Amino acid sequence: MTPRAAARQVARHGGLTLAQTVQSAYEKIVGTSNAAAIADITGRIPFFQQVARERAGNFNQDLATKAIIVGYILNESIKADVGAYAQAIDAFNISLS
Questions:
Q1: Distance (Å, rounded) from C-alpha 28 to C-alpha 26?
Q2: Which of 2, 48, 58, 82 is a good FRET partner for 64, with 20 to 30 A between their CA atoms?
Q3: What is the model's pLDDT at position 85?
C-alpha cells in the first residue's frame, strides 16, 4: 500500500471509534463480515494502542492506532490469502513470472 493509499484508508476511518474501524476495515479489506475474526481483532485494540504509543508517540494517537489496525488487517488478509488486496498481490506475483 502506498503512503497515499494508506492515508486515504486512515482518513476514511477518522470519525469512527476504534471498534467501528475494525469492523469497517475488515469488511472493506476482506470483503465479508466474520463476527469471530472481528471480535478477535477488536479484542486486540489495547495492544494496537500500545504499539501506537511506542512507535508513533508524536502523532495523533487515535489515527495512529487506526493505521495500525488497518495495517494488521491487511497483513492478516495476505497471510490468509483472502480479500481483494490478497487477490491483487496474487495477480501481481503471477504477472512477474
A1: 6
A2: 82
A3: 87
